[in-house]
Amino acid sequence: MKLLPFLRPLLEAAAAVTLMVVGLRVITGFFTRKSRVYRPTFLRQFALLFWPLLCLGVGLPFLGTFFYAGTLSSYELVLLTAVAAVVLGFSVPAFLLHSQYYARNLHTTLVFDPKQNVLEVYEGRVRIPFGKKDIARVERVTCKSERLFWSNYTYLKLQLQTGEVLTLTSLLTNLEPVAEFLRNTPLEKKQRWFCWA
């Protein structure tokens, strides 16, 4: 396998860089106060994608043997297909949700401070004007299972009196405190196997 000697240094370098970035973020997190401004950050994305990336990283070398499919026996091919189905079945849905949430909230900024009674949403640099009284209904969608790789992908839909709908995804932050903050508005809770926003 000529690909393995070339791939190993790249994977080691990527792991070292990731470890350094995460370590620096954790260390600097001790000295900063809790933020009330939420955007899609690297650390939040890494936390959501950790298990799908790990599954793909473990299963990817096995999937490379599909290039030698002509030399494999039928038993090995069936086993390899089962491994590929498990790896892709656990990873791909999380990547699809992540990319959809990223596209939806890439330019969204949430300013949330329940102690100061602040909930603001910005699209780009433009603040969307609304108050708690302007929210007609809140839809909270969570995953039915807590054991799937995509279970942490949830979203809130704020339906304003004007008819505008604001979608806040878990790519910004944990949405449970936001839903708790909006408990006095009409809140509709839904559960789905796949939380496509």
Draw up the topology in text.
Elements: H1 3-30, E1 37-38, H2 42-63, H3 74-105, E2 108-113, E3 118-123, E4 126-128, E5 135-143, E6 155-160, E7 165-169, H4 176-181, E8 187-192
Parallel strand pairs: 5-8
Antiparallel strand pairs: 1-2, 2-3, 3-4, 5-6, 6-7
Notes on the structure:
With about 200 residues, the chain is an alpha+beta fold. It has a domain at about 1-30. It contains 4 helices and 8 strands; from the N terminus they run αβααββββββαβ. It is elongated. The model has no long low-confidence stretch (mean pLDDT about 85). InterPro entries: PH_40. Keywords: Membrane, Transmembrane, Transmembrane helix.
Structural class determined from secondary elements: alpha+beta
Provide a count of the helices. Answer: 4
The ordered string of helix (H) and strand (E) elements is HEHHEEEEEEHE
Rg, alpha carbons? 21 Å
State the shape: elongated
Q: How many beta-strand elements?
A: 8
Share of residues in helices: 40-55%
Low-confidence stretches: none
Strand coverage percent: 15-25%
Q: Tell me the span between the first and last alpha carbons.
A: 42 Å
Described by strand count, sense and barrel closure, the largest sheet is:
4 strands, antiparallel
Q: What order do the strands of the largest sheet run in, or round the barrel if closed?
A: 1-2-3-4
pLDDT averaged residue by residue: 83
Keywords: Membrane, Transmembrane, Transmembrane helix
Protein name: PH domain-containing protein
Domain PH: 37-180
Transmembrane segments: 6-27, 48-71, 77-97
